[in-house]
């Protein structure tokens, strides 16, 4: 598996995507909800083998979501959750886009570029919503060879620059899906 780390070091690095046609809205999920966040995590990442949080307890989810500077922004297509971006403030003005993606049924509709643009802009102005946090000086993320085929392209088109590449062997695991057997292995 190859993991690429990308960054923006100024708000002017962001190259926003065009807004998609139709009734697409992006709303901050302001109430920490382990149930909703786990739904988003498994629905978006189930077919691309997101597994690191599957074993988390309710309390672990709540502790992650209820930290200052952690935000979840959800894209809705005609009222239905289509995808999300999770931001996490870190030391020294760094903000990580921890998770980003679309539920498979919503991919290919131009929602992803818009959601990434919007989420990145919210990373840049995160400290305005969280008194006591340092202003954002860097937004970063990582993507890997297991992610969707257009993920890297989307990050580069939004103005992210590659700063690290790592390759490692990883055991093959079954595609977990949002529930067991949701996607073919």
N- to C-terminal distance? 17 Å
Spell out the helices and strands N to C: EEHHEEEHHEHE
Please summarize the sheet with the most strands: 7 strands, mixed
Could you give the count of β-strands? 7
Strand content: 25-35%
Question: Largest sheet, order of strands side by side?
Answer: 2-3-4-5-6-1-7
Q: Helix proportion of residues, in percent?
A: 10-25%
CA-based gyration radius:
16 Å
Number of helices: 5
Taking pLDDT < 50 over at least 5 consecutive residues as the criterion, the unreliable ranges are: none
Protein structure class: alpha+beta
**Bulk shape:** globular
Let me know the average pLDDT: 92
InterPro entries: Acyl_CoA_acyltransferase, GNAT_dom
Pfam family, one: Acetyltransf_1
Domain N-acetyltransferase: 24-185
Protein name: GNAT family N-acetyltransferase
Notes on the structure:
It comes from Streptomyces thermospinosisporus. This is GNAT family N-acetyltransferase. It holds the Pfam family Acetyltransf_1. With 185 residues, this protein is of the alpha+beta class. It contains 5 helices and 7 strands; from the N terminus they run ββααβββααβαβ. A 7-stranded mixed beta sheet has the order 2-3-4-5-6-1-7, sandwiched between helices. A hairpin with a 4-residue loop joins β4 and β5. The protein is globular.
């Amino acid at each position: 598996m190859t993991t690429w780390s990308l960054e923006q070091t100024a708000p002017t690095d962001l190259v926003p995507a065009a807004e998609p046609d139709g009734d697409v809205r992006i709303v901050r999920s302001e109430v920490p909800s382990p149930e909703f966040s786990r739904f988003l995590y498994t629905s978006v990442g189930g077919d691309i083998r997101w597994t690191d949080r599957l074993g988390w307890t309710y309390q672990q989810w709540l502790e992650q979501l209820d930290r200052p500077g952690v935000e979840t922004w959800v894209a809705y297509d005609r009222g239905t959750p289509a995808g999300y971006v999770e931001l996490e403030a870190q030391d020294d003005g760094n903000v990580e886009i921890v998770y980003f993606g679309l539920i498979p049924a919503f991919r290919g509709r131009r929602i992803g570029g818009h959601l990434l643009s919007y989420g990145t802009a919210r990373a840049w102005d995160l400290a305005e919503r969280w008194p006591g946090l340092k202003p954002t000086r860097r937004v970063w993320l990582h993507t890997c060879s297991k992610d969707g085929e257009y993920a890297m392209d989307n990050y580069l088109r939004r103005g992210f620059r590659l700063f690290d590449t790592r390759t490692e062997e990883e055991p093959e695991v079954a595609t977990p899906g949002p529930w067991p057997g949701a996607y073919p292995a």
